[in-house]
Amino acid sequence: MLVNRKLILAHFWLAFAVFGIALTLGAWQMFIRSPIGTWLSNPELYYRSLTAHGTVMGYVFPTLVAMGFGYAISESALQQRLVGVRWAWAGFWLIVIGSVMAVIPIALGRASVLYTFYPPLIGNVFYYLGVVLVVVGSWIWVALMSINLRVWRKANPGAPVPLAMFANVAGSYLWAWTAVGAALELLLQIIPVAAGLKATIDAGLARVFFSWTLHAIVYFWLMPTYIAYYTIVPRAIGGRVYSDSMARISFILFLVVAMPIGMHHTFADPQVGAGFKFIHSAFTALVALPTLLTVFTICASVEIAARVRGGRGMFGWIRALPWDNPMMLALAFSFVMLGFGGAGGLINMSYQLDASIHNTQWITGHFHLIFGGAIVIMYFAIAYDLWPHLTGRELIDVRLMRTQLWLWFIGMIVTTFPWHWVGILGMPRRMAYFDFGDPAIAPQALSVTLSAIGGFVLLASGIMFIVILARGMRAPQTDAGPYRFALAVHEPKTVPVALNTHALWVALMIGLTLTNYGYPILNLALSSGTSVPAVYVGAQ
Amino acid sequence: MSTRDLFTLRNSHFRIGVGITAAILTVTAIAGFIVLPFAQPWVQFAGVWDAICSAAGVPQRSANVTAPEQAKRLSEVVLTSNTLSRPSQEAIGRGATLAQRCAICHGPTGVSRADSPNLAGQYAAVIYKELHDFRSGARTNAVMSPFAVNLTDQEIADLSNYYAYLPRLPAYHPTPQLPKPNIVIYGAPMRGIAPCGSCHGSLDNKTGSPWLEGQSEAYMKAQLQAFASGERRNDISQQMRNIARAMTPQEIEAAAAYYASQPPDVVKAVD
Question: For the domain bounded by B89-165, which CATH number is listed?
């Protein structure tokens, strides 16, 4: 039951439009700092582009996808009209206004601070206010998801919450709490300086606040992808979810352990004690748990589908899978990229090994493979799956979809593998220019060139994606029927209260944040003499 | 079962969830705060509490280690992009009177004939910082230091405003303009050298960095060499020393010659 289709479509279209722009900027950046591009002689333009790319891809695009998908889940999984539609539109418009407000200073070169802000670098105050509006808009969504679930619970006391909605609300709570770190950094530290009320800033404390947001945000980006793994893919390929409980456990584990781990982003920072770094490193290792549970459950679910289709043998069933189904293809590609990305992540989260790749291109390669690869390819799949139900028109060109997904997969591998490699060789990240004539980095020219070519393959795939969706808006009308989610092998009749509500896990998430972040933040906030003069972008 | 029954020890999910989380936290805390600190044989701790404080990042000052004597003074000037941003006409006038004693080296119009820096139109924050550093001894020069040592804060501010107010004039001995060398526009990323132009003009200007167009080639070369040898050390956070140390002698030559050959009127005005 999808009633507010316009609302959902607006979120998706805005998400994919800004994604298209940011993707183009990304491809240009790959090109301009590779040996095949002629250097502009102005690094400022590069950082301007990088700030826009990161701000859109990090904050605006995934937030809009999660919101649009969240509204769709709320209506179709709960079978009830969305409560608070006006508020949802208000949230949407806040994101539109915030994005425009942030992009103007970026385009003028007044906010080239990258999406991670990097104080004491300080940009124009409207850039930060724009980001705040985007976050506030998304918090409206968080509240609406919680309210809609509550309304449904009242009407269905004691009934098991549909898995898709349970996971969706878990994702929204995770986002609500993890965004608090960046919000504190912006409101207490950066905006007063950007507005000219203060001239110094505690950069170390700001980095700790940002690490609060910076890692769990990745799991917020990941939530729609995991929801698609569990509740869309098995249905789309004709199978069933192997275990509903396993799915719920994975999502609550993300809620608990995604949060208190962000300090692995500050391993090289002197202002954080080694003991806290170790704890965060250990908890980061625990995040592998829900992912491994998911990989197991989904592989089992897929096997069910294959055996139903007549697949036999230990591995022979893999051939029986519907490989011409874009959803199957997207899942397989997503898992391969998740596997490689996760393996690379083991290096990043290890307190010792991290030192060898810290601040190198390895890191950029890593998060592009995980986010741009494993996560975003499932965003495409979600859009393909949901589109006929939103537009009432069929997406006919399945072949083009398959090509698009193949190109995205190949492009992402070609982009990120050499990227990791040059990182191991020591090539630093966040550099606008490399002199490949220098004997020290001349051997890396080939890898960087390959990487840039991959960037253009990705751009081609991104354009195809938007074309497919746009053509879908003009296809002949059909009735796609109600939107359904995958059923479990054993559909839950009753679910223990702990796996049907979020309270216990939200409490643990907040508790672990206090234990793992409380002292480092207080220590820095109460120490005097830790602030440095702000460096204003674009000011003499 | 209702939500009220969730947070009780009777609920096995509560017991297990909280129990496992607390156990993991305890084990990792013991490992991180006690076991690992003592596993480093090169660090000595007075006791367990000392190790815990160290691992927690408590700011500590060891009692038996005295801070090393600072052989040379470091710069204490704090600059922001608002430093001296709106001077009054009176301040500029007072600066003009004071500047008469600077003219012997820096020229009556702020353009030097003696390989001293040209000050006409230099950013106020730059002159302000250098005068403060000469006065405090963070920067020393046989000729300049005696002039600076008796200046008051007000006089330093007025002089800075006056010179910043003067129009930028061509160098006394203009040379043909040279093309931009790599070190100025690209830097040397693999040696950690940012482009000169990203702070000193050509690409961008950063607070506290002087523009260099039309300055004396001999002067700029001498300063880069002084930064490289550590003889000059009033750069905040060693930023110029780190750069100059990593530069090759050829790059020093090229950067100095390039900036000396540029007309100063291309410099971006302060907004």
Answer: 1.10.760.10
